[in-house]
């Protein structure tokens, strides 16, 4: 009985400690953002650094190579995406009246013929409204950057986080193995075997999920971006890359990419053939991602369903802001592993297996 009470007291202390950690993370979210971002990146990149060490590079040289490769990849991505999206935004503003004509002359007649309805749009009114407000819209876009730059505190915090991130990532990667060893040394010796087994399972799940999901994002960015570029969509490469990078949110990334690509295609192409080609890219991409790319690279044994992923992103984002979004998927994967462990302990406990005395 005394041992049972001790176990319950231990679990109560652990629950209180976890609650306190989550509360502290929420309170210090702005300060912890660069630290948590660097820790997550270090966890993902540490195997790459270890592999380079096996090829004869020193630890410092290996992590510098990895960091520079990541920096240039992000820089190249921004140099490709940002100008294309800005150009597409200007093109949309210029061709909004053309979109109204397309809806009136082509889309609505086809819809009315299909449904037997009589929908209509007052083209002249819409064109007049768009013509009157195009200048205002341009002025708003032109004033957006100066307005954002006036937010001194937010801008300073963002710049500080960005400047701290590479420094923190360097130290996390340099000392990662030592930090893991120190944490392992703090575990009581009588729990070493069990904690080691759980930690190994957590590392397998987190590694497979995070690194696999990163690979899925890169592959889908290439598929969507390449496909939209091949069908001749202006800024299709940028839209496809954005859709691929958002694929970690199930269906949301593909939906946002489809919405942007459909709008761009409606402004660019004169008939339905362009829209059908754009839609076919997303149909093929979603099929490949659902049935081949994600099952192969991430696997289904992790136990994170799309509903779980969306709920985790929304819940932790609401509780801890951007830090919560960073921690949502790792914490969800950890919760799955710990949940399996607790359920197994429950089924093996005397409380569950005890039978009613006749």
What does this protein structure show overall?
The chain has 358 residues and is mostly helical. The chain has eleven helices and no strands. α2 (29-54) packs across α3 (59-115), α6 (192-230) packs antiparallel against α7 and α6 (192-230) packs antiparallel against α10 (306-348). The protein starts with a helix and ends in a 5-residue tail after the last helix. 19% of the residues are buried. Mean pLDDT is 75; it is low at 148-152.
Structural category: mainly alpha
Mean pLDDT: 75
Into which percentage range does the β-strand content fall? under 5%
How big is the Rg?
Answer: 26 Å
- The geometry reads as globular
Helix amount, in percent?
Answer: over 70%
Terminal CA distance reads: 23 Å
The tally of beta strands, per DSSP, is 0
Largest sheet: none
**Poorly predicted ranges:** 148-152
Order of helices and strands: HHHHHHHHHHH
What is the count of helical runs? 11
Q: What characteristics describe this protein?
A:
single chain, 358 residues, mainly alpha, 11 helices
Could you give the topology of this structure?
Elements: H1 2-27, H2 29-54, H3 59-115, H4 123-149, H5 152-185, H6 192-230, H7 236-245, H8 252-268, H9 272-297, H10 306-348, H11 350-353
Helix pairs in contact: 1-10, 2-3, 2-5, 2-10, 3-4, 3-5, 3-7, 3-8, 6-7, 6-9, 6-10, 7-8, 8-9
Entry summary:
By secondary structure, the protein is mostly helical.
